[in-house]
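Record type: ASSEMBLY
Status: queued
Input:
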Amino acid sequence: MVNSKRGISRREMLRLMGVGTVGTALGSHIAYAQSVPESGTFRFQIESGPGTDFVAVVDAFIEEHPEITVEFSQVEAAVVGVDWQRIAMEAGAVDLISNENPKFLKLDPVLKAGLIQPLDGYRDLYEWDDWVLAAALRRSSRGGQLWTLPLYYEICGASYRKSVLESFDVGEPQTWEEFIQMLEKFKAAGLIPLTNGHRGFSQIQMIHYQFWASIGGLSGPGSITDVIFGDGKFTDAPSVEAAQAILDIYNAGLLDPDVLSITQDDGNERFISGAAALNVTGTWFYSEMQRQFDDDWDMLTMPGPGGGPIWCTGETEAMVIPAAAQDPDAAALFLDFCVKGTGAKILLERGNLLATKAFGELAIPQIQRLPIITGDESSLLIFGWLPQNSQDAYQQGLGGILAGAITPAQWAQQVQDAWERDIEDGQIPEDRSDLL
Amino acid sequence: MLSTKLMRYALYALVILLALPFVFPSLWVLMASFSTNTQITMDSLALPDRLYVENYAHAWTGAKFSTFVYNSLAVSGSVTVLIGVLATMLGYAVSRLDFPGRRLLLLLIMMAIVTPVFSYLEPLTRVVRHLGLANSRTAVILTTTATFLPVPTLLMRSFFLTLPEELGDAGRVEGASEWGVFRHIMAPLARSGVLTVLIFAFLWSWNDLLLPAVFLQAPDKYTIAYAITTLKPAGFRQDHVTMFAASIISTGPMIVVYLLLMRRFIAGLTVGGLRG
Amino acid sequence: MSALASKLRPRPLESWRSASSKAREQWLLALVLVTPALIMMGIFVFYPALQTIGLSFYKWDGISPDMGNFVGFKTFARATDNYPFSQAIKNSLLWGVVGLFVPTIIGLIAAALVEDTNLRPKPLFRFAFFVPYFFSMAVAAALFTRVYDPSYGMINQVIQALGFTDVKPQWLGDGRIAIYAAMGVFVWHETAFCYIVFTAAIQQIDRSLYDSAKVDGASEVQVFRYITIPSVRDVATFVMTIMLIVGLTPFAVVFPLTTPGLGGPYYSTEILPTLIFKKARMGYNASEAAALGVILLILVIGIVTVFLWFRERTAPKD
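Status: finished
Output:
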């Protein structure tokens, strides 16, 4: 297909994309023997949200490793799109960067573009397998190589006040029936039983993950795992039933009637003010709750019809070392500092849930009970696993179900179509079984 | 007599009724900016128990809006100056100079007006990245100038066309060069047109969201409009009052422009600007 | 701007050889004056616009080093065969119509009411109608997320205060009204712009026209119809063209109202720019974004051309 009659020449396109830099860099990392550096400098960039916690980590690192220089910067990337890391990596401006999560939306495109280097040398050198959760490492691998190191874990659920549950004489629901009874009690008392925000970044999807995990189980046909890594479809019964269950609680007035109009931040306010009894959120909300309520809070995972409570977990703050990195050894030393060194301790103490087993005993009780520490099996928090087409269909469609614009079955079909389109477009690997 | 008086009251009632939807939300925002988050969620129409001026202090320093105002002024200021200069030059060339390709150039300018920047967003970001301008105010300034330039150029063109040609010829008889005619005769005469264009450029670039959203990644470079739309308080909470206070702060330069220059803006807009 | 087109007719040019020194000097000056602007527009407008057209015929994710294959119109087919796209087209067209008529007509009526009557004090009323423009469009939209909030929002609070306690519209959550709520912000903001320009135009109208009409016994409405409207015709064309272009790409409104789930709820506020932004900036679909860009380009050029042609055709003969 190489000919000169195209609208834009390929060479020009490549030049524009900065592929030159990448090409040079791809060769360069081989020159490094992966080792513990005696001195060095690395440039580290991260999103400003989690970045706040990393300020302290970087300070501690510099104190412990005066031989290494760190150039640290933060980026506000929540709204500007998915490609800020790509820009930094293409420009050869960083040696270590947080690529947010190791899923199809974030990892596979930069991998395809040849922008990052494998971490297996460091994995062996620092024995990360002994520390980082096996599932996290597996999902961060492609083609048998480790491409990214997730530092955080995220778990979604419904947060509650312990005192409120006590005053209603209810515990964490173990079945759908118990869950509904609990919501009914809240409703009868004039509370918003379960608040949630759809406008902007829809967190109705967090309800769907939990119901779906509960109905489909950990690995059965049509379970989340089966769809993401196997041959399952979004149109299989568990996902559709989960969507129907959301519609049912909405129609019964058990879900915040304003859900479609408000943002999740509004939902958080309703929960904190006491107007709402349960709030759909996740571990990212832990530090705020700890600040607001001392110990009088916790989070549960909601059972769906016919199932028990199953946690949905997902990796995040997945660090990558760009192919163009000038000092990957120094960057990797810092990563290890966050896996089992003082860095991990600092991150944990600040209320983050880590993808490493280090210092687990220091965590607050609300974290101690989560599957990451207990070792229990968990399902998938699938945000980030879906590329843009399917994510848009998934998220917008859940709103469409509540608005009565589509049925759960139609929604599932639309998501499945978009998912297949994403596979066809090469945004998702055809065979994903080795990630499981 | 009675009926004219009645008509008068009816007129006032009508205009006030028409103005109400435009004024009321702004007043609500102004009031809420002096209130508290709790008060707003409880009863947003009620007056606050006192004026919480600290909201403004918090927006200005705590939420770093001093930085955003500075960024916006830097971006809009540069865009305004660039557009003022370039539109005057280009406008003069296409209205008062005879040169081959003038017609084609005018056509290009008109095409540029109807080419929305969204249509070439992706290649544009690539160009910017290739020039090494990713995540920079310079990128916003240059792209904003280039994409806004056509309309001010046409305004300047219409403006120059209203100036009598004889003035230029008189200058030429006096021995002025073509540059001299432009620089010392025509351009000074077009002052009110230039002022109109400057205000136009300032209003529009102050208003813009897309280009800052695409080209600025680091929060310390955000413009105020972009910062307000992405304002995210810590802890996944809602912070209405800071947002309201920041919005009121953002109107400052616009109000100054209105009070000082709007009369001349209006004059400039009509004297020549839109008659073409 | 319609009149502009008529001024584009070519004039015979002298060739360089036979040109007088004046002509030569003009050519040189033109070169100097035109070049900087042309370079800027070339780099940041024309070159990427042409690239878009090229890119739309390829299948490329925007990140792979290999640009992918030439696939002809397949990318267009893929970008348009879905519900979000049809919503975006529907909403864009609707928004174009609203932009064309609503802010312009309200702005003109408001300007006439203030300027053509003995209303006092005029500066106060002018200020009042211009107030929305002090906020930038995006800030206005961000503020309206609060104005529209179902519980503490200004509108629902006013409805409550008026005694309709069981009326609680979900302005931004109800797919049937969200698009109109978004347009409301647009109209709120852009009317101020139309208002100020029409004010300028009306102030320029020769007062003696009004006086003689009054002497002839014309009513206020007749004066408005037969003097004001025809006098501001050119200005109206200018304002309407701007509103049409802005109305076809109201990203600054939709972005703050729905970010980052742009175009929600359930695609009810989807417009072509949000779709392009999602494909190009939130996912890896450079080719589809380019194809949508070409469609937007054709849409805007087509509609604006038809509009200007219509205005020119219906223009009164001098």
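Annotation: Chain A has two domains: 10-147+317-361, 155-311+379-435.
Annotation: Residues 1-32 of chain A have pLDDT under 50 and may be disordered.
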